[in-house]
Amino acid sequence: MFIQDDPKAAAQLVAQRAGCPSDDCRAHDLPQYPQDIEVATPALGEMVLSVRRDGTVIPTNLEEVVQTKSFLSFPSILGINNHEYDWMLPHFFLFPGWDLGMTCENMMILVFMLQKLHLPDSALGIIVEEYFGDMKDPVGIRDAFLELMGDLLIVVLGV
Length: 159
What we know:
By secondary structure, this protein is mainly α. The protein is built from 7 helices and 2 strands; from the N terminus they run βααβααααα.
């Protein structure tokens, strides 16, 4: 991810790849229904999204902020929904075809890697039972895995 002063070029690239017909794309020009969004999403390809330097929350380049330790103090509010770990992170980190569904074997291999988080031995069984139960549907397993990753990597850290 990189930081830029003007996000217009990145926004135009996303709009173009999503099928927006003009240079001046508005939200109403983009797909409106989930099935249309699912069709347009693969066209986005391997994009790196950027963060806009706004002069307030991100006042200067991050290297300078880290070197001078001039972090801003402000309250953080985490809005929790069902898609914290949704598409971009798994797209970069999971195996090809994850988006079509996951087998129990795939899921268990990935969940087994959670042991690197130094969870108690009993936690892994509880996690698998809580999130996956006796689920067999590959799409359901995928969705439960994404929910688990969102909870562990984003929600827990924000609480």
